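Data deposition worksheet. Section B asks for the primary sequence of the deposited chain exactly as it was used as input, without tags or linkers unless they were present during the calculation. Section C holds the resulting structure in token form. Section D is free text for depositor observations; keep each observation to a single sentence. Incomplete worksheets are returned to the depositor.
Section A, Depositor: J.P.
Section B:
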Amino acid sequence: MWTYLTQPFTFTLPGFGTSELEPWQENGEQWRRLRVAWPGNLASLDAVLTVYVGEDGLIRREDYDVEIMGGSAGAHYMSGYTRVAGIMLPTGHRILPRTPEGQGLTEPLLISIDLSEITFA
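Section C:
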């Protein structure tokens, strides 16, 4: 959960590498895409992920291959943004399989996370 709640701020830490990719069309929207390479000293599901950002600047999706599950391709959708101490955080997380072409599938739902009563201490 740490990685879900601290992105995109963690991407500015030393050792991260980022590069912008071609835009992506999904559900009638165009999203900007960012390739993010994680440094080896931080735990992550994958060393490289792709972040999809909506026109409002909020993260809509992340793609990664879950190394601990044999490289299973996942599409992690984020929704239900709420403002906490001035920072927009997604409260809904749905992780679905992803095709080799990059399309997120609608089923089976692999992981479902709903957050509430979020505060910063």
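Section D:
The first helix runs from residue 2 to 6.
The chain has one helix and seven strands.
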